Amino acid sequence: MAENREKLNIERFKDVKLRVSFVISGKEMPFSKVMKLKEGDLIEFEDKKVEDYLDVLLNGQKFGIGELVVVNDKISLRLVDLV
Fold first, then answer.
1. DSSP conformational letter for 52
2. Which residue, of 10, 34, 44, 65, has the greatest Cβ tally within 10 A?
C-alpha cells in the first residue's frame, strides 16, 4: 500500500518542467578583457580537456556527470553517473 501511495505521489510531478544544464568549464577574466572581446575571439579553458566529463545540473543543483557525444550530427550529452 505504501508503494502505491509513493507511485501516486511521483505521478503528480511527471509534467513538471525542470531546467537541465551542463557545465563545460569556468574562467575568471578581468572586466577590461571581457569588454575587448569581439566576434571570433577564443577563450581557452586550461582546466578542461575535450574528453573530460561535464557536471550535469538540474535546476542549478548537481545531478550527475556526463560526456559530450554526437548523435545525428547534433551535440548531445550522455549521462555517465547520477549523484
1. S
2. 65
